């Protein structure tokens, strides 16, 4: 254990973390403005409750959840931007809300929607400012700028004003800026939002390499499950401010491997009786995992496909049918469904396996 209280075991900890925000309802119109003065109505939002999470050095954690699930709030609490209402959050063994400069220097935060670099400066000038702020040795600075800009394919953009760069180039510069001081823990909140496929891929490869070569611990939030699948070993799912799942991604993916998603396109004018269909396909161990007006997605063990597919032709007015590996997204949807039904978290067994 060092001076900050960090144990070798965990770099990040949340113990029973909860966060409530109090907001005030605003009445519309002129009368409403007057009413707001006289009697403001307060509303309490429980953004997070009872979050327990411990992350070891070198772990790569994907944090997912629907809009408003509490992901950004959790990241803000862990990094000490806002205090928790209940429970304790710790970074490097120290209370996150009372970090000292020495802990802050080991941390980096990349917010996809916010720029940490200076908008009017070319990235190289922002990087030089960061060099001074973090006292980065010149030799390390020069090597990292050269290496990281090459890895992210933005070597020729260093001297162009940040505001003149494309969204993808800007994000890559933000990421380089975050990694320049060689942080131990990096939080990335939606780093690939709005980026094209090639840029996403380049950023994912960069993160994987940094985690492998430098042992960086990172926590990544993204609505793009491929980001998480390609870069993280562990997955944490938040649902309505509660922990819905925490487990090993490989074990979760292994479950996906043995499953198939059958997308059945039907005549849109012949409505599907979903409860009857669910009942009929249950005999094959299959479930309805999604539907639209003219299609229904059914998930089943790969081994039962030969029995189920002919049965589907009997049960539905099939126009077309395709079979694919079950996307992770469907499994995550199932986690949400179970979390809603059971009203409590579904623990994955880490690191050996995960259960949903
Ligand atoms: N400063 C704030 N004041 C009041 N309510 C807030 C504040 N910040 C967040 N909330 C509320 O807390 C809940 C969780 O918000 P949060 O931003 O953490 O969700 P999220 O999972 O990051 O969502 P998204 O994917 O949309 O970014 C939401 O209901 C949100 O409205």
From TrEMBL:
Record's signal peptide: none
Residue ranges of domain ABC transporter in the record: 33-265
EC number: 3.6.3.-
InterPro entries in alphabetical order: AAA+_ATPase, ABC_transporter-like_ATP-bd, ABC_transporter-like_CS, ABC_transporter_ATP-binding, P-loop_NTPase
The entry's keywords: ATP-binding, Hydrolase, Nodulation, Nucleotide-binding, Transport
Coiled coil location: none
Single Gene Ontology MF annotation: ATP binding
Keyword Cell division: no
SUPFAM superfamilies for the chain: P-loop containing nucleoside triphosphate hydrolases (SSF52540)
Family in the record: Belongs to the ABC transporter superfamily.
PANTHER family, per the entry: ABC TRANSPORTER ATP-BINDING PROTEIN (PTHR42711), ABC TRANSPORTER ATP-BINDING PROTEIN NATA (PTHR42711:SF5)
Name under which the protein is recorded: Methionine import ATP-binding protein MetN 2
The species this protein was found in: Saltatorellus ferox
Gene: metN2
């Amino acid at each position: 254990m060092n001076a900050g209280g960090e144990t070798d075991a965990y770099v990040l900890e949340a113990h029973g973390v909860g966060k409530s925000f109090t907001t005030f309802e605003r009445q519309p119109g002129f009368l409403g403005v007057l009413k707001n003065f006289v009697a403001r109505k307060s509303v309490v939002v429980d953004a997070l409750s009872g979050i327990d999470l411990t992350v070891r050095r070198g772990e790569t954690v994907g944090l997912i959840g629907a809009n408003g699930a509490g992901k950004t709030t959790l990241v803000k609490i862990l990094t000490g931007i806002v205090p928790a209402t209940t429970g304790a959050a710790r970074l490097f063994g120290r209370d996150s809300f009372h970090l000292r400069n020495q802990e802050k220097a080991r941390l980096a935060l990349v917010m996809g929607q916010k720029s940490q670099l200076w908008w009017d400066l070319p990235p190289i000038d922002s990087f030089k400012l960061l060099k001074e702020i973090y006292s980065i040795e010149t030799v390390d600075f020069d090597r990292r700028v050269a290496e990281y800009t090459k890895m992210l394919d933005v070597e020729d953009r260093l001297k162009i004003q940040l505001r003149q760069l494309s969204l993808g180039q800007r994000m890559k510069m933000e990421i380089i800026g975050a990694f320049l001081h060689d942080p131990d823990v990096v939080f990335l909140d939606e780093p690939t939002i709005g980026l094209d496929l090639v840029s996403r891929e380049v950023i994912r490869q960069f993160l994987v390499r940094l985690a492998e070569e430098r042992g960086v611990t990172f926590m990544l939030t993204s609505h793009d499950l491929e980001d998480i699948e390609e870069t993280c070993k562990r997955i944490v799912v938040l649902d309505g401010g509660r922990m819905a799942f925490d487990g090993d991604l490989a074990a979760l993916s292994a479950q996906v491997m043995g499953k198939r998603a059958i997308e059945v396109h039907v005549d849109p004018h012949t409505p599907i009786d979903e409860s009857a269909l669910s009942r009929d396909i249950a005999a094959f161990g299959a479930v309805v995992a999604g539907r639209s007006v003219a299609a229904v997605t059914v998930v089943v063990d790969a081994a039962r496909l030969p029995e189920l597919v002919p049965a589907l032709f009997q049960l539905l007015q099939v126009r077309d049918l395709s079979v694919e590996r079950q996307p992770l997204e469907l499994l995550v949807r199932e986690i949400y469904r179970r979390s809603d039904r059971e009203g409590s978290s579904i623990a994955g067994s880490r690191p050996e396996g995960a259960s949903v």
